[in-house]
Amino acid sequence: MRVAIVSESFLPQVNGVTNSVCRVLEHLADHGHEAMVVAPGRSPSSYAGFPIRSTAAFRLPFYRSFRVGLPSRTIMSSLEEFRPDVVHLASPTVVGASGMTAAARLGVPAVAVFQTDLVGFARQYGMRGADSAIWSWLRHIHTRAARTLAPSSATMAELNAHGIPRLSLWGRGVDLERFNPAHRSESLRAEFAPNGEVVVGYVGRLAADKRVHLLAELADLPGIKLVVVGDGPAARSLRRRVPDAVFCGLRTGTELSQILASFDVFVHTGANETYCQAVQEALAAGVPVVAAAAGGPLDLVQPEHNGLLYPADSPGGMREAVARLASDGQARARMSGNARSSVLHRTWSSLCEQLVRHYETVLAEDFQASTQQSHEEPWAVRIPDPSEAPAGTV
Question: Which ranges carry the Glycosyltransferase subfamily 4-like N-terminal domain (predicted)?
């Protein structure tokens, strides 16, 4: 099979979209498929033996390390040259919209992978009036896709409520070797918490959309040491808010494996996660999780079993949940013992096999029927009735 992946981001940017695309490319390479990637910015020329085509991009003024792609003739010409059997749209927004148009012109089915909560992102940056426009744009893209894959049950329900058709659930895998309790380091723990404190850790981007300012709610909890891993535009202000925390900066590879496994409690502050890979990696490392009861964590965190959930709009609820686990060693140990087993079935191998089956299914379906609106005006999108969805989808 020949798969063209059009992604809103790729290396050297490290985020959930990039991580998923890399794992998919590795799986396609291991199983004898052909692939290529079109992505914004200055990406490497190849990955897993497949070519990468770069398109124009600009930096967000409030988030200089984040590049946003621009429409480009490179997308159409790259797909024409590659002649894919299926087009994979990774978190389609701007570059993905051009990829959708190119796929339709080539008569090739497109599988759109929904991954980023753009509405929640916009709200966190003060653009609260943009909800309607964003959903209209997302419908414009996704109603032309042969299938949209949602990462979690909460996201799937939200997409369905906003008129996105032909939905199926496709989660995210986790590397069970890289994220493993065996990487726990007592020497590293002693470095973080020399007085034997309970190590409470956060891993992720330090940005407003992750609500990392809420970590300040934990600053004065007795008997804990807060450890922050990651970087981003909110790093400087967060250092001022929690001056006694340990800031590790961006860490990857073996360093990240050891740091994460050495936490006693993992806390996640975001409330707009469509999946939340960081939560899943913490669970794989045997660390109980405290997360907001919203989005992807609802599928991952089982309260009282492998962690605790707090109301998404309650910073005090987050503080209370962390304080409870920090003071109750028996509860931590019980939840830690359950954490890894709760995600053992979520391997990248099994998830990528599911993805290939989605490719095969849309290729077998009547693509012409599913893209009959491709020549309508972009905003004149007809929202299909749910009863029109293929069997097995929403």
Answer: 14-178
Same domain, 87 and 214: no
State the Cα–Cα distance between residues 181 and 166, nearest whole angstrom.
39
In terms of Cβ atoms closer than 10 Å to its own Cβ (0-12, 13-18, 19+), residue 153 is middle
- List the one residue out of 9, 10, 13 whose CA is nearest residue 231: 13
Question: pLDDT tens for residues 75-133?
Answer: 999 999 999 999 999 999 999 999 999 999 999 999 999 999 998 888 877 777 889 99
- Range of 241's domain? 181-343
Residues 142 and 281 in one domain: no
The answer to whether 94 touches 52, Cβ cutoff 8 Å, is no
Residue 305, both tokens: 């079993």
Please tell me whether residues 125 and 219 are part of one structural domain: no
Task: Report helix, strand and coil shares of the chain as percent, to nearest 5.
Answer: 45, 20, 40
- Token pair belonging to 169: 């659930």
pLDDT digits (tens, 9 = 90+) for 35-50: 999 999 888 999 999 9
Q: Are 150 and 167 in contact (CB under 8 A)?
A: yes
Q: Give the integer Cα–Cα distance in Å for 314 and 305.
A: 21
